[in-house]
Write a structure and sequence with these properties.
CATH topology of chain A: Four Helix Bundle (Hemerythrin (Met), subunit A)
Helix content of chain A: over 70%
Shape of chain B: elongated
Shape of chain A: elongated
Order of helices and strands of chain B: HEEHEH
Number of helices of chain A: 5
Distance between the termini of chain B: 48 Å
Largest sheet of chain A: none
Strand content of chain A: under 5%
Helix content of chain B: 40-55%
Largest sheet of chain B: 2 strands, antiparallel
Radius of gyration of chain A: 18 Å
CATH class of chain A: Mainly Alpha
Oligomer: heterodimer
Number of strands of chain B: 3
Strand content of chain B: 15-25%
Strand order of the largest sheet of chain B: 1-2
Structural class of chain B: alpha+beta
Number of helices of chain B: 3
Chain lengths: 169, 105
């Protein structure tokens, strides 16, 4: 049963990777004063923020499932306690940051400059800080190599999307 | 698409048509290379389409985050922990501009 759930969640993780790359090579009918590069950067930020949301949501589902799943010793794969609370809180902080970032990006649909990049950087910084908690506590608290790999995979997906957003000039 | 790629190498021409009864109605006619470009997912796209598509994706991002926070808070409450703040759901993106009725003479 655990194996089935892991396979399903890993499959969802693969689907979540779709859409990370730059999506549009040429954008036509640009308004006056808006450059191709600005729209492409904004489009890429939107795509990667969405990739973060999907990976984080898959992580949330997996963590709650692992908490509800009993291992061979009869104990939850991810037991109750402070570490479980810390993991949930970290995932929730990522949700709050991605929500704020999506609200902000929707207000600047045709723009990408240093100021916008810095603002988005503050949100991705909050996501990175929460990821650090997940890396330190999440992978250690989860029992079993397969479940640890699953959690690491989602954390890796989120980190990869953050890296792409940070690289947008 | 693989067949189109092969034909494009020899710069062939093609006609795509729809058969209605005994009549063949041409849909697309031209060089393979130009048709292949039109079908490419990495091709040209109009600015307004990018904006409306991405705005919908941002709404989806916000919706996913809120769904997560609601589920997380349920778990936190079961652990006797104060829940996290859940943001207000986003408004739906504005509908794509549509052509109005033709002006009356």
């Amino acid at each position: 049963m655990i194996r089935k759930r892991l396979v399903l969640t890993l499959a969802l993780a693969c689907v979540s990777l779709v859409g990370c790359a730059a999506r549009q090579s040429t954008i036509t009918n640009l308004p006056a004063g808006v450059t191709q590069a600005q729209v492409q950067s904004w489009d890429s930020a939107v795509a990667n923020l969405h990739a973060i949301a999907i990976a984080n949501s898959n992580l949330r589902v997996a963590v709650i499932q692992l908490h509800a799943t009993l291992g061979t010793n009869g104990q939850p794969v991810l037991p109750s306690g402070q570490v479980y609370v810390d993991i949930l809180t970290a995932i929730g902080r990522i949700d709050q940051a991605e929500n704020a970032a999506s609200s902000f990006l929707s207000t600047v649909p045709n723009n990408w400059n240093q100021s916008i990049s810095a603002q988005i950087g503050s949100y991705t910084g909050a996501i990175s800080a929460a990821l650090q908690t997940l890396t330190n506590e999440g992978t250690l608290a989860v029992k079993g190599t397969a479940a640890q790999n699953q959690v690491s995979q989602f954390i890796g997906n989120i980190a990869a999307a953050i890296k792409i957003i940070a690289s947008l000039a | 698409m693989a067949a189109l790629g092969t034909l494009a190498l020899i710069d062939s021409g093609v006609t795509l048509a729809l058969q209605i009864g005994s009549v063949l109605v041409p849909l697309i006619k031209g060089a393979i290379s130009s048709i292949k470009q039109d079908l490419s997912p990495q091709g040209t796209v109009v600015y307004t389409v990018v904006i409306s598509t991405d705005q919908a994706e941002l709404v989806d991002t916000a919706t996913v985050s809120i769904t997560d926070l609601v589920a997380i808070n349920k778990e936190l409450q079961a652990q006797n922990v104060i829940p996290l703040v859940v943001p207000t759901p986003p408004a739906a993106p504005p509908a794509a501009p549509t052509q109005g009725p033709p002006p009356t003479p």
